Amino acid sequence: MTPETATLTPQGHVKDPKLADQGVNRIEWAEREMPVLRQIRARFEKEKPLRGKRIAACLHVTTETANLMLTLKAGGAQIALCASNPLSTQDDVAAALVHRHGIATFAIKGEDQETFYHHIGATIDIKPEFTMDDGADLVTVLHTKRGDAIGNVIAGTEETTTGVIRLRSMAREGALKYPILAVNDAKTKFMFDNRYGTGQSTIDGILRATNRLLAGSSFVVLGYGWCGRGVASRARGLGAHVVVTEVDPLPALEAVMDGFQVMPAPEAVKRGDVFVTVTGNIHVLRIEHFRDMKDGAIVSNSGHFNVELDLDALRKETKSVRTVRPFVEEYTLPGGKRIFVLGEGRLINLAAAEGHPAAVMDMSFANQALGIEYLLSHAKELKPSLYPIPKALDEEIARLKLEALGVRLDKLTPEQIAYLASWQQGT
Ligand SMILES: NC(=O)c1ccc[n+]([C@@H]2O[C@H](COP(=O)([O-])OP(=O)(O)OC[C@H]3O[C@@H](n4cnc5c(N)ncnc54)[C@H](O)[C@@H]3O)[C@@H](O)[C@H]2O)c1
Q1: Pocket of ligand 1, candidates 88, 161, 190: which has the most ligand atoms within 8 Å of its Cβ, to mutate?
Q2: Mind listing the pLDDT tens digit for each residue in 6-34?
Q3: Looking at the whole model, is its pTM more than 0.90?
Q4: Of 72, 116, 405, 417, which has the most beta carbons under 10 Å away?
Q5: Which of 243, 300, 304, 346 has most ligand 1 atoms within 8 Å of its beta carbon, as the pocket-test mutant?
Q6: Does 281 sit in the ligand 1 pocket, CB within 6 Å?
Q7: SS3 106
């Protein structure tokens, strides 16, 4: 045990218990915007579908995640929660979960790598029957270092694109030992959380860290997937000139038709004032790119892992590094050029801001809660592999969200139903 983890108990490990009351208030604030999860919690409270089930969760420890944990607890589950990123934890939320809600939570904002993995280990110590992951670190530890606990695991869920990619490759190589639901791939998740959530909160993180005016600046988005689309459209909304880089012809074409300038990274780096990587890939911005950037360029990442920026290479070439504001490090290159790296290259929306707004996490976490409930009755039929969230659950979540927003749908007439099912009728 390191000095940092010396105070770890089975009840949890948090920065400061005195933050608990603030955490309770903020968790309640998020709850107001999570009507779908509230409805699920009310039903779980009555039916207790998860009674006695042990769940290890590795998620960003935010106010929204706290509401998911309270929902699982209402359903009767025993939970242990740790952070899915060393810099995304909200310490007041972690304190509230342990000291007000009795949910074992192991997470401290800024924890070192060793503590991060120690905390994952602490959630595995409850011998989970279900895992809930965001980025597949928990699953990886279970499959590599903690094989002792894997026999108890019945099934799991995965929250994000990067986790889904890692799990797909485990399944392909026959390494995955239990079935996992890809929550990320539900439409009520990626079309809203990745696009509107990452879009808004990434800009929020950059602004909180730098307080820079985006209007009139040149803003480069690397990767035009679901997250990239959101970030690019929000940056444009604030008046930035947005440039997109892509490696896939379809999203590149979409970005062109959406009105963005598309060009390879070596050209984009010469123009950009602000950069955001959102690819899920490694070393998207490399040393040859940093060298060509303007003096004062701001560089950030909102993809799951900090590997999108090759900061090791930048550090090697840098004369000096100093922190100039919270979450802003100034790297000075030999010729005097300065590059500002935000949040140590970790997802900037969670490092410097509060992550996605609750209204969007409402749907993502409704998928998590209903996904675990689905696995309770269906896991036995599933081989170790990756599975989509059933379409019926996805549609149910969209229906509940619309209901909560007071939006009503139109109905098909019997004639229209028959028409859509037929092939004989033409003009
Ligand atoms: N910050 C957050 O809160 C948050 C939320 C959701 C997802 N994510 C993460 O964001 C990342 C992207 O997720 P997504 O759902 O948009 O994925 P996606 O698969 O929809 O999009 C990724 C895009 O990046 C492109 N790409 C890959 N390598 C590239 C390169 N070298 N240069 C330029 N483009 C490249 C791909 O062609 C693809 O279009 C993942 O790591 C995901 O886990 C973060």
Answers
A1: 161
A2: 678 989 999 999 999 999 999 999 999 99
A3: yes
A4: 72
A5: 304
A6: yes
A7: strand
